[in-house]
Write a structure and sequence with these properties.
alpha/beta; Rossmann fold; 434 Repressor (Amino-terminal Domain); 3 domains; 8-stranded mixed β-sheet
Length: about 450
């Protein structure tokens, strides 16, 4: 999961700070030494870490902070603000200005995820009502054009390329010309990559950029490559010129070095983060929200946005009514699990709720177990779904037999449901008390 190791280490450091009450300059220095080490272990660029720590220290050792009633919270607030600052501070949206079609040129090394990213951007724009064409300018990699054609279809975009021995820049020009004639809003150009940077790749990218005059030249980099992502970004910017960065495989990067370094090192903003294999697993990059996640403070705004996309409003109101009346049943559990699947893994969703984490509540369900979970619940009677506490040993055996599972599977599901109901009750109580941030 993104930043998992770093989040845990920073949480431990700040827990120590909170336990001290009043802080001295020596306390702050000791904590910052640990923060520095944690960032370096997370593969954050050394110069970025040095500047980051210096900025925090300058702000944190002032009289106003050390003499405040909650100095530890003040220090954490400063760390949060500086984290957001090194990742760009402000959200940078796609530039689609000018006469249509707007052109987005995707650049990057082979394996960084350019082709899938083209589909993800296309889907995002299609949801905004845009007519999108994806153009494959990769004439080198076997099956590259077919791959883009498949993801384009999934995203609801039109696919274009030229056959034969066409040059990449000719394909780009022809695609844009056709998109202009047919009234498309956006053209996404998917280019070839190499396993490493070479001059031939750069020259081809420059030719494509020259004929396409793109509004955006976006570099797609693999977040798991850490500081190497920064070096690649610097070279592409120097040779071709880039307007922004897209981080892929962020969901697999437990360290987070690339996300915390690339903006500061290159001076270019991160526009999007790819957080999964599905086309829907694609987020606008919000530096402040990412900083909140890194510090284990949750990300309520992104959670709300995901919920608004996945859950029907009337259904949500009915669920809220049941929650407040403590009427949450296994039928509701099944329906909520189906809705939450559209938003991502339950573990990731919990991380967006301040004060909760998967470490505290083992509620995640392996996607492969979904069929089993549904079968178990559907093998129960209406009364058992409404009042699971009546399910005794003999009922468990009947349910297991009817669902083709084991009694142990039934027990695991009932345990998970009890934990979910307990969590839901807790959140409802916080909301009533005015403590829940929604």
């Amino acid at each position: 999961m993104p930043f998992e190791g770093l989040t845990q280490k920073l949480s431990d450091i700040f827990r120590k700070l909170r336990g001290k009450g009043k802080l001295t300059e020596a306390d702050v220095d000791a904590a910052l030494r640990e923060v520095r080490l944690s960032l370096l272990e997370a593969d954050v660029n050394y110069k970025v870490v040095k500047e980051f720590i210096a900025n925090i220290r300058e702000r944190a050792v002032g009289e106003e902070v050390l003499s405040s009633l909650t100095p530890a919270q003040q220090v954490i607030k400063i760390v949060y603000e500086e984290l957001a600052a090194i990742m760009g501070k402000d959200v940078r949206r796609l530039n689609l200005a000018g006469s249509p079609p707007a052109v987005i040129l995707l650049l990057g090394l082979q394996g960084s995820g350019k082709t899938t990213t083209a589909g993800k951007i296309a889907l995002l724009l299609r949801k905004q009502g845009k007519h999108v064409m994806c153009v494959s300018c990769d004439v080198w990699r076997p099956a590259a054009q077919r791959q883009l054609e498949i993801v384009s279809q999934k995203a609801g975009a039109v696919f274009f390329t030229l056959g034969g021995n066409s040059k990449a820049e000719d394909i780009a020009a022809a695609g844009i010309s056709q998109a202009k004639r047919q009234g498309y809003d956006v053209v996404i150009l998917d280019t070839a990559g190499r396993l490493q940077i070479d001059e031939d790749m750069m020259e081809e990218a420059r030719r494509i950029a020259s004929v396409s005059a793109p509004q955006e030249k976006l570099l797609v980099v693999d977040a798991m490559t850490g500081q190497e992502a920064c070096r690649v970004a610097q070279v592409f910017d120097e040779k071709v010129g880039i307007s922004g960065i897209i981080l892929t495989k962020l969901d697999s990067d437990a360290r987070g070095g690339a996300a915390l370094s690339v903006v500061k090192v290159t001076g270019k903003p991160v526009l999007f983060a790819s957080v999964g294999e599905k086309l829907e697993d694609f987020e606008v990059f919000h530096p402040d929200r990412m900083a909140s996640r890194i510090l284990g403070m949750g990300d309520v705004l992104t959670l709300i946005e995901k919920a608004q996309e996945a859950i029907d409003e009337a259904k949500a109101r009915e669920f809220d009514r049941k929650l407040r009346r403590n009427e949450f049943t296994l039928d509701d559990f099944l329906e909520q699990m189906r809705d939450m699947r559209k938003m991502g893994s339950i573990g990731d969703i919990l991380r967006m709720i301040p004060g909760l984490s998967r470490a505290k509540l083992d509620l995640d369900v392996d996607p492969k177990e979904w069929t089993r979970v549904e079968a178990i619940i559907q093998s129960m009677t209406k009364e058992e779904r409404r009042r699971p506490e009546i399910i005794d040993g003999s009922r468990k055996k009947r349910i297991a037999k009817g669902s083709g599972t084991s009694v142990q599977d039934v027990n695991r599901l009932l345990k998970k449901f009890a934990e979910v109901r307990k969590m839901m009750s807790r959140l409802s109580s916080m909301d009533k008390a005015g403590k829940f941030p929604f």
